[in-house]
Automatic annotation (TrEMBL):
Keywords: Kinase, Membrane, Transferase, Transmembrane, Transmembrane helix. The chain crosses the membrane at residues 49-67, 150-168, 274-294. The keyword Transferase applies. InterPro entries: AmpE, Beta-lactamase_Reg. It comes from the Bacteria. GO terms for biological process: response to antibiotic. This is Histidine kinase. The keyword Ion transport does not apply. GO terms for cellular component: plasma membrane. It comes from Marinobacter vulgaris. Pfam families: AmpE.
Length: 295
C-alpha cells in the first residue's frame, strides 16, 4: 500500500499544483508565527522550532503504531494520503515560468527577471548580473524546490513512514519560514543532513533518466562529493544528464546563436522532463521493492 498511497498522493498533488491551489507554505508560516515569540538576544535559539516539528512527528508515529496494533492498519492509509498531499507540492511556478519563457523569447530580460525574482531565495535576488546567471539561478532554484517538495518527502516516507516525512518537511519549512532569521542557518544545516542521501540518489537517477553516457563521463567527485551541498549535487548531475547544453547557456549561445530566443523555454522543458522521468524511475523502483516483498 505504500506504493499506492504515494502514487495517488503524487498525482493528486500534481493536479493541485497545476491549479495553483492548497499552498502549504502559508500553513507553516502561520504555525511558526504563533509559537515563535522569543526574548531579545535569543533569536538564534533553535530548540523551539525543532520542538514544534518533533512533537507532532512523534505523536504521528505513535498514532500510526497504535492503529496498527489495534488491527486498524487500513485506517492509516487515508490519513497518510491526506498528509502526503499536504506535505508535497510546489504550487506557484506554472505562471511565472510561462511568463519568463515568453519574455526570454522576446529578448526582454528585464521582464523575465521581474516574473521570476519572487520565486528565488532572497539571497539570490541581487546575483543575476546577466541572462546566463539569471537562468542558472532559476534552474537551480527549480531543481532544489521540486526535489525538496516531492523527492525528499517520498524518500523519507518510504524509509521512515509519514512521521519521518513530516519531520523532513518541517525542517525545510523551518529553514525557509522561521520568523527569527538568526536561527535559520542552523535549520539549514539540519536540512542538508536530511537532504544528503536522497539528493545523491536523485543525482544517480538523473543519469538513468537522462543522458547516461554524458553522466558517466563526469567526474564522480563532482556528482557525489561528501561536502557538496544539495544544489551543487543536483545542478552538477542535471547538467551532466541533459543534452543540448540545457544548463550551459554560455556555450549554447556561442554554438547556436540563432536559437538563443528559444533557449529559456527549451532549457526549462528539459529540466521538467528530467524531473518527471526521474520520479517515474523512483516509482518503478518502489514497485520492484513491493514485488520483491521488501516493502
Amino acid at each position: 500500500m505504500v506504493l499506492v498511497v504515494f502514487l495517488l498522493a503524487y498525482l493528486t498533488r500534481r493536479k493541485l499544483d497545476a491549479a495553483n491551489t492548497m499552498p502549504g507554505d502559508a500553513l507553516w508560516r502561520a504555525a511558526f508565527r504563533a509559537g515563535s515569540k522569543t526574548s531579545a538576544g535569543k533569536e538564534a535559539v533553535k530548540w523551539k522550532g525543532l520542538l514544534m516539528v518533533t512533537v507532532p512527528s512523534v505523536l504521528l508515529a505513535v498514532a500510526m503504531w497504535y492503529l496498527a496494533e489495534l488491527g486498524w492498519k487500513v485506517a492509516t492509509y487515508p490519513l497518510e494520503f491526506v498528509l502526503l498531499v499536504m506535505l508535497m507540492g510546489a504550487p506557484g511556478w506554472k505562471a511565472p515560468l510561462e511568463a519568463y519563457s515568453s519574455s526570454w523569447a522576446r529578448g526582454d530580460m528585464q521582464a523575465a527577471w521581474h516574473h521570476i525574482k519572487d520565486n528565488l531565495p532572497a539571497r539570490d535576488r541581487g546575483a543575476a548580473a546577466s541572462p546566463d546567471e539569471m537562468h542558472l539561478l532559476l534552474s537551480r532554484t527549480l531543481l532544489v524546490n521540486v526535489f525538496e517538495r516531492f523527492f525528499l518527502i517520498g524518500f523519507w516516507y518510504v524509509v521512515g513512514g509519514p512521521a519521518a516525512a513530516f519531520f523532513a518537511r518541517g525542517v525545510i519549512a523551518l529553514r525557509d519560514h522561521w520568523p527569527q532569521a538568526a536561527a535559520r542557518p542552523g535549520y539549514a544545516a539540519l536540512a542538508e543532513l536530511l537532504n544528503w542521501l536522497p539528493s545523491r540518489l536523485l543525482s544517480f537517477t538523473f543519469g538513468v533518466a537522462g543522458d547516461l553516457a554524458g553522466w558517466i563521463s563526469e567526474r564522480k567527485g563532482a556528482l557525489f562529493g561528501v561536502t557538496l551541498t544539495t544544489d551543487q549535487v543536483l545542478m552538477g548531475a542535471a547538467n551532466a544528464a541533459l543534452t543540448g547544453y540545457a544548463l550551459d547557456p554560455g556555450r549554447f549561445s556561442r554554438i547556436h546563436p540563432d536559437e538563443w530566443p528559444g533557449y529559456g523555454r527549451r532549457s526549462l522543458d528539459a529540466i521538467r522532463n528530467l524531473l518527471n522521468r526521474s520520479m517515474l524511475v523512483w516509482i518503478c523502483l518502489l514497485a520492484l521493492l513491493v514485488i520483491a516483498g521488501v516493502m
